[in-house]
TrEMBL record:
Residues 199-258 form the 3-hydroxyacyl-CoA dehydrogenase C-terminal domain. Residues 17-194 form the 3-hydroxyacyl-CoA dehydrogenase NAD binding domain. It holds the Pfam family 3HCDH. It comes from the Bacteria. Keywords: Oxidoreductase. It is an enzyme of class 1 (oxidoreductase). Belongs to the 3-hydroxyacyl-CoA dehydrogenase family. GO terms for molecular function: (3S)-3-hydroxyacyl-CoA dehydrogenase (NAD+) activity. This is 3-hydroxyacyl-CoA dehydrogenase. Pathway: Lipid metabolism; butanoate metabolism. Its EC number is 1.1.1.35.
């Protein structure tokens, strides 16, 4: 959305307590998301140095959000909901949901989830923030595996307010529903995957773009900075308003079916060139087209194109008020060595 309400400005919910295990960047981000939505956060960090600075990191992010008009309460009121702990038992005491944010290591997660299963009541959902590791790889052997799943946020989740819920084959429907309910409560949009798959959906999409980006730079087609410019000022802006399927629907008169007919063969040839002979099937095209058409707000193609254009114009108007320092950052050649 272009003009989101301040965090925590939605309807009141019943009190909840979430344990966030790990105070790295994702743990800090989750603490911001939960606390700004009036959820109590019990933050665990066993590293003394990281733990001493963790609340300051939360404060810093909350302050930036408040100054941007994106926080509905004073920073001190939100920060008061976050408590810091140095033991797992203390952190999960009283929590009705656990969000794990430790390193990307299967063995570490396997040991941690076994311990979480042992010390928390059966109704507490155990969720991992992992970007790539399926829950079936680290939770399959524990007695309470039915309450284990992945809740992988886009990073940072206090800005990119979507998270994918990835259940394992053994995850219960109740655990999925609990994760979906919590994300909705804290102003996140949950996307539930129908099955486990390595990399989940977010990173598979990101990986597909990165694979082609590296190839284009490697083959001398364009520079890395120009590639970033194309995505930042082109695809990225468009996708912030509508996704790739709706883009296909509205970029071509005749919609997705016509787009696939005209452009599909080109993408298929590019795929073969990159070693991926996996063309779009008529059945998949029809399934996608039918779903996207049902979700469009207006009855005609022209009306939906006008709606897209109005949203993009509004976004462009907002963005013109700000400069992007990363887009204008000096090159390595123009900076002094550190």
């Amino acid at each position: 959305m272009i003009s989101p309400p301040p965090l925590g400005s939605g309807a009141a919910h019943s009190p909840r307590t979430v344990a966030v295990v790990g105070a790295g960047s994702i743990g800090i981000a989750w603490a911001v998301v939960f606390s700004s939505a009036r959820v109590s956060v019990r933050l665990l960090e066993t590293d003394d140095t990281v733990r001493r600075g963790a609340l300051g990191e939360v404060d810093s992010v909350l302050t930036a959000l408040f100054e941007a008009g994106l926080l509905a309460e004073p920073v001190a009121d939100v920060l008061a909901r976050v408590s810091m702990h140095d033991s797992l038992t203390a952190a999960v005491d009283g929590a009705d949901f656990v969000q794990e944010c430790v390193i990307e290591d299967i063995e570490v997660k396997r040991e941690l989830f076994a311990e979480l299963d042992r010390i928390t009541p059966p109704g507490v959902v155990l969720a991992s923030s992992t970007s790539t590791i399926m829950a079936s790889l680290f939770a399959a052997e524990i007695p309470g595996r039915d309450r284990c799943l992945v809740v992988h946020p886009a990073n940072p989740p206090y800005f990119l307010r979507v998270a994918e819920i990835v259940p394992a084959p053994f995850t219960s429907a109740e655990a999925i529903d609990s994760a979906r309910e919590l994300l909705t409560q804290v102003d996140m949009t949950p996307v539930v995957l129908n099955r486990e798959i390595e990399g989940f959906a977010f990173n598979r999409l990101q990986g597909a773009v990165l694979r082609e980006a590296y190839c284009l730079v490697r083959d001398g087609v364009l520079s890395a900075s120009d590639l970033d410019t194309l995505v930042r000022d082109g695809l990225g802006l468009r996708w912030s308003v509508i996704g790739p399927f709706t883009t296909s629907e509205l970029n071509t008169r005749g919609g997705i079916r016509r787009h696939a007919e005209v452009i599909g063969p080109v993408y298929a040839r590019i795929g073969v060139m990159r070693g991926a002979d996996d063309p779009w099937t008529p059945e998949t095209i029809e399934m996608v087209a039918s779903e996207i058409e049902q979700r469009l707000p207006h009855a005609t193609w022209e009306e939906n194109v006008h709606e897209r254009d109005r949203a993009m114009i509004k976004l462009a108007s907002l963005l013109r008020q700000f400069e992007n320092p990363l887009a204008q950052a000096p090159t390595a050649a123009s900076t002094s060595p550190l």
